[in-house]
Write a sequence for this structure.
């Protein structure tokens, strides 16, 4: 029996595990597959995490993980397939094993949002990608498009412009919500072309992506399309236990306390105004402290 199981190894989960371990709790962290530390592994440069300047998301994430490993937190690579809230929480795993715990910290973050246009699924992995940082090197010297107007899309466009022949940045409005300084860099790149006030209507190709059709009737020839239009919370396994807002984010305060006893949430899947590394790390610490408090008052032995 664990005192706490943390699910998810992004900054929120790692932070929670660190706090629980340092409080002397019997804790294990479960991650589906190690592919870098959550969504930040996709960021080329994180400039707004206090104390670190000009560091890649991957490197910052590695440092978080190293810290947790040095504290000797047990990390298990397995996929959680089901959660059962009984007297204690039962965590069922893809391997067929199951673990029992008094508290759960759920920190699985968010998944990329899809455009939901014809061809998107058909060409997934054959030109369509949700991670420029992971797949960009496959498009060296080629022409690609990035879709979106937030920080991820801007980061992706800059990153790809160093690798690719041409990058189209497709955004549905004139104004971008991403960082203005990054947008200035984008505007100064000769191989980035902005296609504004339009949206993707279809991805075309034969065996691989060959073109994108736009709402305004244009067709642009590309070898790849990187979709960066935000994310949706990964709450599939807990949504029957907790309350969520209209977008599916879990309703919980900064303390991570949910409507289910012993279940705490941390990070991007929580309903909140700012989803950044700093708020994920903070959420993890807060949820851990809430779980520690819960364990103190738990009379089940
Ligand atoms: P985001 O800020 O939610 O931006 C999503 C973008 O996609 C918006 O521009 C939105 O357009 C557009 N969009 C949404 N649905 C669309 C659709 N169906 N078709 C076409 N366009 C669509 O998402 P994000 O860029 O992934 O960023 C998420 C959070 O992570 C933000 O808080 C961001 O600041 C943070 N982040 C930070 C860094 C960094 O600090 N280096 C890097 C990456 C992300 P509208 O603008 O018209 O709504």
């Amino acid at each position: 029996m664990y005192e706490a199981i943390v699910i998810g190894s992004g900054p929120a989960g790692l932070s929670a595990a660190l706090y629980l371990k340092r409080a002397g709790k019997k804790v294990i962290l479960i991650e589906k597959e190690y592919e870098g530390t959550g969504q930040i592994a996709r960021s080329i440069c994180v400039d707004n995490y206090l104390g670190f300047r000009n560091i890649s998301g991957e490197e910052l994430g590695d440092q978080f993980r190293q810290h947790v490993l040095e504290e000797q937190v047990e990390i298990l690579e397995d996929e959680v397939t089901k959660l059962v809230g009984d007297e204690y929480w039962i965590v069922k795993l893809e391997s067929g094993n199951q673990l029992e715990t008094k508290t759960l910290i759920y920190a699985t973050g968010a998944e990329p949002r899809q455009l939901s246009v014809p061809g998107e699924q058909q060409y997934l992995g054959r030109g369509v990608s949700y991670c420029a940082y992971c797949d960009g090197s496959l498009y060296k010297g080629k022409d690609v498009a990035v879709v979106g107007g937030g920080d991820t899309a801007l980061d992706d466009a800059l990153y790809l412009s160093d690798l690719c022949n041409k990058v189209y940045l497709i955004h549905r409005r004139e104004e971008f919500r991403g960082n203005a300084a990054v947008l200035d860099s984008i505007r100064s790149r000769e191989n980035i072309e902005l296609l504004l006030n339009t949206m993707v209507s279809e991805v075309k190709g034969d065996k691989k992506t060959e073109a994108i059709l736009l709402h305004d009737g244009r067709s642009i020839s590309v070898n790849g399309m990187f979709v960066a239009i935000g994310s949706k919370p990964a709450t599939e396994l807990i949504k029957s236990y907790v309350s969520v807002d209209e977008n599916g984010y879990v309703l919980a305060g900064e303390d991570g306390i949910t409507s289910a006893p012993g279940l705490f949430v941390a990070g991007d899947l929580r309903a909140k105004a700012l989803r950044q590394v700093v708020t994920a790390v903070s959420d993890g610490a807060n949820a851990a402290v809430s779980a520690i408090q819960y364990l103190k008052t738990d009379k089940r032995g």
Q: What stands out?
A: Helices lie at 11-22, 57-70, 132-135, 151-163, 180-188, 277-297. The pocket of NAP is lined by residues 43, 46, 48, 115, 147-153, 155, 172-173, 177, 199, 228-231, 275-276 (CB under 6 Å). The longest strand covers residues 98-106. Residues 277-297 form the longest helix (21 residues).
